[in-house]
Amino acid sequence: MMSRNRPRRAMAEINIVPYIDVMLVLLVIFMITTPLLTQGIKVNLPKAQAQTLSHEKQQPIILSVDNQGAYYLNIAPDSKQIISPQAVLELVTAKLQAAGQQPPAVLVKGDQAVDYGKVVQAMVLLQKAGAKQIGLITKPGKDDNSN
Question: How far lies 46's CA from each of 73, 118, 135, in Å?
Fold first, then answer.
């Protein structure tokens, strides 16, 4: 039998089981949401007051989209002629495979008036052709936030 005269000692241990439960729940949440956040096309977006591209030995591949949504490719036999999506896919795939370990830059030049979906379709087309990174060409302009 315990004596009533002795004071009880305080428990000095921290119960970490609830913290472990919270940590595991957060881990599961991040494991589920991370793949959802990384879906899509990897694009090097232009920055305000961006520096011009360095001149490389290789000519960049430039896919232009006019205000009607037609494609023009600078490596096509006639770069001023409208080109079909299938022809873009074939030419860009051949050019990237021929380049090997040092692929040229792949860029999209979209008209300001063109539907955003057409530019995205052009980027998907280039991705299917094997482009790992796709850049956007913009005009140099002032660094102001007023549109």
Answer: 21, 18, 7
**Triad 109, 110, 111: Cα angle to 5°:** 125
Supply the CATH number for residue 70's domain.
3.30.420.270
Residue 83 is given by DSSP the state B
Contact between residue 83 and residue 72 where contact means Cβ atoms under 8 Å apart: yes
List of the chain residues with pLDDT < 50: 39-48, 146-147
Q: Does residue 82 belong to any structural domain of this protein?
A: yes
Q: Which helix (H) or strand (E) holds 73?
A: strand 71-73
Adjacent-strand bridge partners of 135: 44, 107
Instruction: Let me know: does 136 contact 107? Beta carbons within 8 Å.
Output: yes
- Domain for residue 30, yes or no? no
pLDDT recorded at residue 125: 92
